[in-house]
Amino acid sequence: MRARMRRGVAAVLTASALSLTAAACGGSDSGSDGDKKAKDSAAKPLTAAQMKAGLVGVKDLPAGYKVGEETADDEKYTADKKECQPLADFLSQKIAGGTDGGSADFESADQSSMVSQNIVTFPGAGATDYAKKLSTALDACKGFGVGEGDQKMAMTIEKLSATPKAGEESHSFRMKTEIKSLSLKFETNFQVVRQGTGISRVLHVPADASGHKDFDELAKRVGEKFVKAVQS
């Protein structure tokens, strides 16, 4: 049951995206065509090729990982605290309004830990609003509950300020989950990276608390590949 629940939490890996909105120009139209083209390019969603190139493979990860089973969960989870809803949304595979760029799932040889990545892109300013809501939620939300009865899950949120930054913006945190009816507890590390109009979200479920030390290196590798792909 414990291994099955850990596999199920891979569905927590969803992706959303951020888009850069060009700053409003002054009254003069003397700006160069090059500046305008750069702003237009920055506001465009990522291409399918860019998103595919931004996904890590086994060779990009530390030794000991293999390709894992892809998971998905489109169920909508509602937090019992309004300010925590952007974090509860991490429990669902789908993010409204975004274009999915694919995912990659990996697990350790003994299936005790897993790593998942997902990439999404958004047009316009909708994704920027999402990033702002996520940042606000991380500041305001320390914990929340989802589900009812035997399926009730209690989540505790811990910001990870020491995790290496990546891209133009990144947010890292740990979600501690407890399901009392199953006497089950596990912890999941996340990093969300924005580069241009794309978001890469990486999820790491260690076998136990001692495995948290591996997250910084995993996040660094995933973030670097994503940023390089977007900039290409």
Give a structural overview.
With 232 residues, the protein is α+β, with helices and mostly antiparallel strands. The protein has one domain: PknH-like extracellular domain (Protein Transport Mog1p, Chain A, 3-Layer(aba) Sandwich). The protein has six helices and eight strands, in the order αααβαββαβββββα. The chain has an eight-stranded antiparallel beta sheet, sandwiched between helices. It is globular. The protein starts with a helix and ends with a helix.
Overall outline: globular
Just give the CATH class: Alpha Beta
Strand order of the largest sheet: 1-2-3-8-7-6-5-4
> How many distinct beta strands?
8
Count of spatially separate domains:
1
CATH architecture: 3-Layer(aba) Sandwich
> Biggest β-sheet, characterized?
8 strands, antiparallel
Weakly predicted, low-confidence segments? 1-38
Binned, the helix content reads: 25-40%
- C-alpha Rg, in Å? 18 Å
In terms of DSSP E residues, the strand content is 25-35%
CATH topology: Protein Transport Mog1p, Chain A
Q: Termini separation (Å)?
A: 43 Å
The secondary structure category is alpha+beta
Number of helices: 6
CATH superfamily: PknH-like extracellular domain
Overall residue-averaged pLDDT value: 81
SSE series: HHHEHEEHEEEEEH
Organism: Streptomyces inusitatus
Protein name: Lipoprotein
Keywords: Signal
Signal peptide: 1-24
